[in-house]
Design goal:
The protein is mostly helical. It has one domain: MetI-like (MetI-like fold), CATH 1.10.3720. It has 12 helices and no strands. α3 runs parallel beside α6, α3 runs antiparallel to α11 and α9 runs antiparallel to α12. The longest helix has about 35 residues.
Length: about 280
């Protein structure tokens, strides 16, 4: 009896304690980034460090949002990320449904070929991609960057949506065919509404991947007015000798806001999409 009671006490005390330690380890960089953006530069190098901000200042945020360059980078990132997400969703839904429902020659080989592109590092593709974009006049265009990011996001997106489509009973589609519903009607009126968790998960994945991109944006966009947020931060706000850490942390906090809002709004869809798509019933 005492042993069972002790095990119960340990379970209720140790598990929350370990969870607190784990969350503290994960969230501390975000906390330090946030409080650094609210400090003066003179307070960043004092010893011992100031773990809390007693008198937060907002002059870094006021200065940042008064700069037209940062707002341009922010706008470009939103345009590229949203466009990449919409294009990825459209193509992944079509391809995923085709791989799930249709039978054609070399179907497994085609799926394997698409997934094998994920094994290639981005750096190995950039030289060939740059040369091809230069010959087609796609350098320094948002369209070219959107195409590159969509291509990078598609393999995982197609595979994930295919798993969702596989879990939907074919009998529903057969019943719709009997009622005279077309193939496109079946897809958009029956299959996609039942695949909402997977669609949201793929949309969030595509948006985060394109929002966090650095290599494609830095290579394919060289004109400052067309740059997105990440290369803009690395080029404009990070110097070669000295760093304005408070300003850099202010930029980083501002750039994480869309991702934070995205997770707060669609967290349940993201979790259910990843878990329910992982197991086929």
């Amino acid at each position: 009896m005492n042993k069972s009671w002790n095990e119960r006490i340990l379970r209720y005390l140790v598990s929350p304690a370990l969870m607190i330690v784990y969350l503290s380890f994960l969230l501390f960089p975000l906390y330090w980034m946030a409080i650094t953006s609210l400090k003066r530069n003179s307070d960043l190098f004092v010893m011992p460090p100031k773990w809390f901000v007693t008198q937060p200042i907002l002059e870094h945020y006021i200065k940042l949002f008064s700069e037209s360059a940062f707002l341009v980078y922010y706008k470009n990132s939103l345009i590229v990320s949203l466009s990449t997400t919409l294009l990825t969703l459209l193509l992944a839904m079509m391809a995923g449904y085709a791989f799930s429902r249709f039978r054609f020659a070399f179907k497994e080989l085609a799926m394997l070929s698409i997934m094998s592109t994920q094994m290639l590092p981005v750096v190995s593709l950039l030289i060939a991609l740059y040369a091809m974009y230069k010959s087609y006049g796609l350098l320094n265009t948002h369209i070219g960057l959107i195409i590159a990011l969509t291509t990078a996001a598609l393999p995982f997106s197609i595979m994930m949506l295919k798993v969702f489509f596989d879990s939907i009973p074919i009998s529903l589609e057969e019943a719709a065919k009997i009622d005279g519903v077309s193939r496109s009607g079946i897809l958009f009126r029956i299959v996609l509404p039942l695949s909402k968790p997977g669609i949201f998960a793929v949309g969030i994945y595509s948006f985060i991947m394109s929002w966090d991109d650095l290599l494609y944006s830095l290579t394919l966009i060289t004109k400052d007015p067309l740059r997105t947020l990440n290369p803009g931060i690395s080029i404009r706000y990070m110097g070669e000798v000295a760093y304005d850490w408070a300003n850099i942390m202010t930029v980083c906090v501002s750039s994480t806001i869309p991702i934070l809002l995205l997770f707060l709004m669609f967290q349940k869809y993201m979790v259910s999409g990843l878990t329910s798509g992982a197991v086929k019933e």
